[in-house]
Amino acid sequence: MKEVKIEISVSVRIVEELTTAEKALMDKAIEVARNAYAPYSRFHVGAALRLANGQIITGSNQENAASPSGLCAERVALFYAGAQYPDVPVCEIAIVALVNGVLQDHISPCGGCRQVLLETEERGKSPLRILLCGKDKVQTLSSANDLLPLSFGQNDLK
C-alpha cells in the first residue's frame, strides 16, 4: 500500500490586511449578497469575481421552492462571466454569507461550485484566487484546485 498526502496552503488575514482591490471585491460581494433570493434558507450568499480585463461580475444565490432548481451565488456569477466574456479568464473571486444582514465567518463553496470553479480555472488556463471572506478574517487560496484536490476535470474525458 502506498499513502499519498495531499496538502493545500491557505493564507489567513484580517480584513484590514486586504489590498484595496481585494477589499473592493469583498465589498461588492457583500452588496450583492443583500440581493439574494433566499426566502427558505435565509442564508444570503454573494460572490464577486474579477476578470483578467478588470471587469467585476457579481452573483447572489437564487433559491426556488422546487429545490434544487435554485442556484448558488458562485455559479450565478461564473456562468454569467462565461456567457458574456467566454475568452476572458477569471482571476479572483470573493465569497461572503449574510444571515439577517450580518456578515458571517468565512463560507466555503459547495461541491458543485467547487467543480465549476475548477473548470473555470481550467478554461481560463490561469489560476483563480479564492477569497473566503468573513467578518474578521479572510481565507485565501491561490487556486480552485486547492478546494478540490483529486478532482474530475477536462483531462479525465480524453
Describe this structure as you would to a colleague.
The protein is of the alpha+beta class and 158 residues long. The chain has one domain: Cytidine Deaminase, domain 2 (3-Layer(aba) Sandwich), CATH 3.40.140. Helices cover 25% and strands 26% of the residues. It contains three helices and seven strands, in the order βαββαββαββ. It has helices at 20-33, 73-84, 111-124; strands at 10-14, 43-51, 56-60, 90-99, 102-103, 129-133, 137-141. Strands 1, 2, 3, 4, 5, 6 and 7 form a seven-stranded mixed β-sheet that branches. Helix 2 (73-84) packs parallel to helix 3 (111-124). The mean pLDDT is 95.
Outline of this structure?
The protein has helices at 20-33, 73-84, 111-124; strands at residues 10-14, 43-51, 56-60, 90-99, 102-103, 129-133, 137-141. Helices cover 25% and strands 26% of the residues.
Present the secondary structure layout.
Elements: E1 10-14, H1 20-33, E2 43-51, E3 56-60, H2 73-84, E4 90-99, E5 102-103, H3 111-124, E6 129-133, E7 137-141
Parallel strand pairs: 4-6
Antiparallel strand pairs: 1-7, 2-3, 2-4, 4-5, 6-7
Helix pairs in contact: 2-3
Compute the average pLDDT: 95
Instruction: Give the second-level CATH assignment, the architecture.
Output: 3-Layer(aba) Sandwich
Distance between the termini: 28 Å
Instruction: Please name the fourth-level CATH homologous superfamily.
Output: Cytidine Deaminase, domain 2
Number of domains: 1
Q: Count every beta strand, where a strand is a DSSP E run of 2 or more residues.
A: 7
Q: Please identify the structural class as seen in this structure.
A: alpha+beta
- The share of residues in extended strands comes to 25-35%
CATH topological fold name: Cytidine Deaminase, domain 2
Shape field: globular
Q: Please bin the fraction of helical residues.
A: 25-40%
Low-confidence stretches: none
CATH classification class: Alpha Beta
Number of helices: 3
Pattern of helices and strands? EHEEHEEHEE
Radius of gyration: 15 Å
> Main beta sheet, described?
7 strands, mixed
